[in-house]
Every structure is written in C-alpha cells, then in structure tokens.
C-alpha cells in the first residue's frame, strides 16, 4: 500500500486539514502577539483565545509565537510540496503522514533554535523585553520552511561538541545518488540509479522531462527515460527535496 498513489479523497482531506490548521495558527499568532513596549505592564497582558481571556507573560508569548511561526513555515513547505506532487500526479499515500507531521516538526525545531539563540550559544539575548518578536518569528518560520537544512546546519555546528553516533541501520541517511546505469540511452531506456536513502523517490527528471521512479530498495531506483529528455544530470525528486546525480546522462536518440 505504501507505493500506491494517493486518491482524490486522500488529497482533499489533506488539503482541507492543512488549510484549516494554517488559518487556526494565523489566528493564534495574531491573538498572542505582544503589544508595543510602551503599553506593556510588567511584561504581562490579556490574551483572548477562542472567546476566553487569559493572562500571558511576555516570555510565554514568545514561546507560543516561535512555535506557531515554525509550524506555519512548515505548512508553507507542505503546501508547496503538496500542489507540486498532486499536479504531477506523483503523490503516494505513504507520504501523507509527512504532511500531517511536518507542522509539529517545524514547531519543535523553531523552539530548539529559539532556545539556542536565547541561551547564548550563538548569540546573546538575555532579557525577553530585548527580543524582537518579528525577528524571532521570521527565524522560526524560515526554520520550519527549511527544516532539513536547519537540522543539517545544527548538526554541523555542534558536531565538534558532541561525539558522533556510530553508524547503524536505525539512522536515516540523506538521499544521495552515486551511479547512473547506463549513462547513455534513447527515450524508453530503463535507467538504474544507485545510492542511499532513495526509498522516498517519487520521480526522476531528465532535463525538463520527468519519469515516475520505481523504488527497488533504499539503495536503488529505476526510471524510464521519457520523451523530450535532455542531456544533463538526472534529478531525483523526493518529498525532502531534489537530489542531483553526480553522473551525467546523455540522450543518444529516440526509439524507432
């Protein structure tokens, strides 16, 4: 079932839930946004959410803003990825869970980056009154939009402080292509791409033309060279982003 393409009902449900959550998060962001510094009273203020009033400190507001902004950034990524794969009829049911969980990933990752910044590990921001909510919200939203890149950057920054984990089968490796066989062929040729982390591949682009990827294993996929394919480096399309092959493929002609 994991390799089946998503049905119309599945797509409509995911789109409806995603849009509803997006509107809900925008409402929460507006409701908890702190007032101007001149109108703050001891860092506290009234917040009205869903018809109920509550008192929320400035520090708590900042935590909520960062989490919501991170989730919104992840939703932007989800919506862009969703309409691309739906439009190309390449969305598989096994990846619907990603669209549901991505806002939570963006929210948590946004909070982690916020704690890193506030903790003085990469900069020094001591008082909550000194924090610019616009700046923190923007950083959290970008973190949510580029969660994979952020995770890789954090790993690179703190790799010198923490001992690297031993390689194991339970570690998810980033997708990578190491070989393309054959490296030349006509339209209709079945091309095998080998590497790591390829189980999530959805399509392979040969220039401006794309073909559906047939997943053989996590280390191997196949794709048929489509009509209109161009010379160049094949690009494997995955929900996490494109993966460019280091090996060039040349189109030698067309099938007679």
Defining traits:
2 domains; 22% strand; four-stranded antiparallel beta sheet; 256 residues; Immunoglobulin-like; 40% helix; alpha+beta
Number of domains: 2
Helix-strand sequence: HEEHHHHEEEEEEEEEE
Total DSSP helices: 5
List the uncertain runs: 167-171
Mean pLDDT, to the nearest integer, reads: 81
Measure the end-to-end span.
Answer: 36 Å
Strand order of the largest sheet: 3-5-9-8
Helix content: 40-55%
Structural class: alpha+beta
Cα-atom radius of gyration: 23 Å
Count the E strands.
12
Strand content: 15-25%
What profile does the largest beta sheet have?
A: 4 strands, antiparallel
- The backbone outline, from C-alpha atoms, is elongated
Detailed description of the structure:
The chain is of the alpha+beta class and 256 residues long. Helix content is 40%, strand content 22%. It has helices at residues 8-32, 58-87, 96-118, 133-145, 147-158, and strands at residues 44-49, 52-57, 176-181, 184-186, 190-196, 203-206, 209-212, 214-217, 220-224, 235-238, 241-244, 250-253. The strands form 4 sheets. The protein has a 4-stranded antiparallel sheet with strand order 3-5-9-8, with no helix packed on it. Helix 2 packs antiparallel against helix 3, helix 2 packs parallel to helix 4 and helix 3 (96-118) runs antiparallel to helix 4. The two termini are 36 Å apart.
């Amino acid at each position: 079932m994991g390799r089946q393409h998503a049905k119309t009902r599945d797509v409509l449900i995911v789109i409806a839930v995603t849009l509803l959550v997006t509107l809900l998060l925008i409402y929460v962001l507006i409701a908890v946004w702190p007032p101007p510094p001149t109108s703050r009273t001891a860092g506290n203020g009234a917040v009205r959410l869903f018809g109920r009033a509550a008192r929320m400190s400035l520090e708590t507001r900042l935590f909520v803003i960062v989490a919501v902004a991170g989730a919104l950034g992840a939703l932007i990524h989800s919506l862009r990825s969703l309409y691309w794969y739906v439009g190309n009829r390449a969305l598989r049911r096994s990846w619907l869970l990603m669209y549901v969980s991505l806002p939570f990933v963006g929210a948590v990752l946004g909070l982690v980056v916020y704690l890193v910044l506030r903790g003085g590990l990469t900069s020094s921001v001591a008082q909550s009154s000194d924090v610019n909510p616009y700046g923190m919200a923007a950083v959290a939203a970008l973190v949510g939009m580029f969660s994979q890149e952020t995770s890789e950057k954090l790993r690179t920054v703190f790799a010198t402080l923490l001992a690297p984990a031993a390689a194991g089968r339970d570690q998810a490796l980033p997708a990578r292509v190491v070989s393309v066989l054959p490296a030349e062929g006509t339209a209709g040729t079945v091309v095998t791409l080998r590497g790591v982390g390829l189980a999530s591949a959805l399509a392979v682009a040969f220039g401006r033309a794309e073909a559906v990827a047939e997943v053989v294993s996590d280390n191997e996929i196949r794709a048929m060279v489509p009509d209109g394919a161009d010379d160049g480096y094949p690009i494997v399309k995955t929900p996490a982003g494109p993966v460019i092959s280091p090996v060039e493929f040349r189109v030698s002609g067309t099938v007679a």
